[in-house]
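Quick illustration for those who missed Monday's session on complexes.
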Amino acid sequence: MLESTVAAIRPLDEAAMAAARELQGRLTKPAGSLGALEPLSVRLAGLAGACPPPLPDQAAVAIFAGDHGVHAQGVTPWPQEVTAQMIGNFLAGGAVVNAFARQAGASVTVVDVGVATPLSVTPPDPAARAADPAGPSALTVDVVATPADPDGPRLVAANVRAGTRDMTVTAALTRDEARAAVETGIRVADELVDGGAGILLTGDMGIGNTTPAAALVAVFAGADAAAATGRGTGVDDETYARKVAVVRAALARHTPDPADPLGVLASVGGLEHAALAGLILGAAARRVPVLLDGVIAVSAALAAAAFAPDAVGAMVAGHRSAEPGATAALRHLGLDPLIDLGLRLGEGTGALLALPVVTGAVRVLHEVATFDAAGVAEK
Ligand SMILES: Cc1cc2ncn([C@H]3O[C@H](COP(=O)(O)O)[C@@H](O)[C@H]3O)c2cc1C
Ligand SMILES: O=C(O)c1cccnc1
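Prediction with nicotinic acid bound:
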């Protein structure tokens, strides 16, 4: 499935991009006055192979959750159980991502791809699923909890293993485990797009996950461990120094080859990072834009680009995370973030805040009059 998805990812459609550029030039505004929105609209036309491209309706956030063996090295002050507890919070609608998703009108899908703590959720109801195969629990990956509100957050059970191994001791994952996580992400992308999503947004939850994110950025963007590593949830100087040393030690132990993205994800990645890479590949194969959140998302995007360089055409950088690794990754991908608010939360929050910007970029091509049609004189 990974190979066929990668093979389906093609370059942007030049004719649609030329049409969008030409249309932008005829709209009732000075050329270039919409700044970054103009090249974005052109790229989204190229992705859709149509001008105008469809409005990115039915936005869907997929929050991939996983735990990390490297937590044992003291890289974060938060207990591992917070990953599972936050899943409960997502499903109850109480996290920041829920507030922003409600504001943006986006659906929330939480995917347990590797949480270590057993989740206390309602078991699946096979009868209800059979009765309403097209309902909110129609993901073929098992949905174990659906809310009373059919539009509320859902949980997908796709646990590959109960957290990664400690990458300073051994590879975080086997290649098979990394592949299973990537393919989970592809499957989630497929099912969300089949369900009508016009844009996918990346989300993550995993205590300790900024450490493997830093390692991935160091490998794929060729950054030094110190330049790729940030303070995550806000660690003190002593913990930060340890975190850099942990990233350096993992890189020295595994010497991952950036030309082998599955190997990199297996040795120093995380289950949510691998699944996010899959979600991005899946979106690119379906030619649906994927709006990237923070450092975890962009570290996964580097892996996706290593699998399929043309996948970058489907990526929109939602925001510039305060994590230094995010900036290094975006530079490597050649992406400019849409907003820069100093956020450092993850969950998909920065992507959700950027969503109206993406919609606006496309809406202009649909709704703004041309000089000719509006009878406005040109310069
Ligand atoms: C309550 C809480 C909610 C969060 N939501 C996202 N994260 C973010 O912080 C974690 C990564 O930071 P580090 O590598 O320093 O542990 C991830 O779970 C990420 O999603 C959270 C973290 C906490 C504590
Ligand atoms: O950039 C992010 O997504 C981020 C930053 C710090 C902690 N968790 C996530």
